[in-house]
Design goal:
Distance between the termini: 40 Å
Structural class: mainly alpha
Shape: flat
Radius of gyration: 22 Å
Strand content: under 5%
Length: about 80
């Protein structure tokens, strides 16, 4: 079992080092090429005109409130 742990540590370290090296040696892509591919370069649509049940923030707050209420009720 100790051998499995050491193999996992070595493989994780090698993967981490290779990822960092490749990131540092690679050339950064222009922002125009990343549009639609990454969240930071994509224009986000406005959701203010949608009903509350189609927007993520009110739905998340409602889910959190329900979870808290159930936890208090079943305490």
């Amino acid at each position: 079992m100790a051998q499995n742990f050491w193999i996992a540590m070595v493989s994780w370290t090698v993967c981490f080092v290779v990822t960092i090296l490749l990131s540092l040696l690679g050339k950064a892509r222009p922002v125009a090429e990343l549009k639609g591919l990454v969240w930071g370069a994509t224009e986000r649509p406005r959701t203010t005109d949608e009903p509350w049940h189609k927007r993520p923030v009110p739905l998340a707050l409602a889910a959190i409130a329900i979870c808290i209420a159930i936890n208090i009720w079943l305490w």
